[in-house]
Amino acid sequence: xxxxxxxxxxxxxxxxxxxxxxxxxxxxxxxxxxxxxxxxxxxxxxxx
Length: 48
Known about the structure:
By secondary structure, the chain is mostly helical. It has one domain. The chain contains two helices and no strands. The chain is rod-shaped. The N and C termini lie far apart (about 65 Å). Keywords: Cell membrane, Developmental protein, Membrane, Transmembrane, Transmembrane helix. It is a single-pass membrane protein. One of its GO terms (cellular component) is plasma membrane.
């Protein structure tokens, strides 16, 4: 019975981490900041 219960706990942890909770919002903000930072660096380093 312990073997059957442990995968469901792991599955729920995975579902929470990939969900639209606080972790999901934080990951999305970090991704947006990363893209903006890369664009700024490309614009600053771009030469004709």
